[in-house]
Amino acid sequence: MTLSLLTVLCLIFVSGACIGSFLHVCIYRIPRNISIVFPGSACPACGHSLPFYVNIPILSFVVLKGRCLFCRHPISWQYVMVECITGMLAMMTYLRFGGTWEAIVWFAFAATLVVVSGIDLSFRIIPDRISIPGILIFGCLAWAVLDRPLTSIVSGVLAGGGILYGVALVYYLIRRTEGMGGGDIKLLAMIGAATGVTGVLFTLFAGSLAGTGAGIAAMVKNRQTDRQMQIPFGPFLSAGALVYLFFGDILIDWYFFQVLS
Ligand SMILES: [Zn+2]
Prior knowledge:
Layout: H1 3-29, H2 59-63, H3 77-97, H4 101-123, H5 128-144, H6 150-175, H7 182-222, H8 234-259
Helix pairs in contact: 1-3, 1-4, 3-4, 4-5, 4-8, 5-6, 5-7, 6-7, 7-8
The chain binds zinc ion (ZN).
């Protein structure tokens, strides 16, 4: 790795972390129905508005030792997590797609999934305000920027929405209770708009595998046998879609050429 690539990657990580800082604002404010633009950042404990120098991604958290400068109230770890994850995703998008328009679209897609996952983890909802425009926006971007044919986009949306709708319907008919939220259905439809049918199938497979693993781990840890235990599916679908985005080709090739032959 040349020094210049390293410099570029550092700059991309820092820019990504700054965008991550904004994504955390979205995660905090969208479910609470607060504008994401106004007012500026404020400490959730003392309400003191935060000047830019205490709002520098990651660095401020480290310098302030994780406490508000004004009231010393602990700052949530979520901030740093979201900033680091977004910075990493920005670097990975650059490494995978280079400095292209395609990379910008995929970074926007990844950023949307970060917001969706953050909200689902804290509130157990996936807002329609993100997923429904997301279907349209990523559908249009896939067509205009990624050069994907319209049929592939529409079939991706239908596969994403349809499969989970079917699962939810069967679950409801058997158990007479809702097992899967409508939010997951619309989220997978959005993922389908961006990645097509292959992306949907991969996402569903990887997401279910990871979700089941996490579910079993949680049950063992809490010694719970309650099968109704609610685990948000959105973060697992999002993670599945991101694995597809960055490693889908490699994993699918490996599966068909190594495992099946
Ligand atoms: Zn404070």
